[in-house]
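Re-running Peptidase M20 dimerisation domain-containing protein to confirm reproducibility after the cluster update. Everything else is unchanged from the original entry.
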Amino acid sequence: MMDQRRCPSSLAPSMEILDGTLIKGKRKVDAFVELHIEQGPRLEAEGAAIGVVQAIAAPAAMRVSFHGDGGHAGAQLMPLRNDASLAAAELALQVEAAVLATGAPDTVGTVGRWDLSPNTVNSVPREAALEIDIRDIDGSRRDKVVTTITEAAAAIAKRRKVRHDVAMVNQDAPATCGPEVTSAIAASVEELGLSSIKLVSRAYHDALFMAQIGPAGMIFIPCRNGWSHRPDEFSSPEAIENGVKVLALTLARLASAQPVTDKKEL
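Result of re-run:
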């Protein structure tokens, strides 16, 4: 429940609407369907109009920090150094190796952030922190990669004589889309005469969390070059129209046991 005492009076009506959508206790929803751009290149590359999402990957995000003693870049001799940045560099390569060792295309790993201190050209790095993102549709397999990375960080720190610490930022569970939802999406695509392929969502979406309280599914449409989170992110009006029609027909199917015959409003 939103605390309306902390909200401006002008937002009170909106807060009441939001509170009315709150799902309390163990109450479940019948189905949840989300329409989104693919954020990947497959639909465009394969000329498919719709992606029927089968599962949603979830990330385990971790922060690994290495702590050395630093020193002047000229005066600190190589045999005496415990360079935090070199420990971090080794671990970044270990992240790639651990992910590839699974042999699974759905397991991915990214070292997306580096923080160095003092971060100057004439100083041996004293502090190095990495933020690492491991994603998979298989939670157990993903978590084994996390364990491998954690063990690698400890081994690297010991060998390079640096201190280290590991913190998990988040570790959410992946979701499998509800078969009744994916079947309704597939049937709607077929009825509309559109082409489709089965896909996995590799990004966070509302459906990941809604799947915890009811059957969830996703409809993907193509986006140019698979780009998203960029100023030039783009989906054509035709792609958007196709997605909205599939969403509408899917919701109608899920809301009724009878087949939908009147598509004038689509």
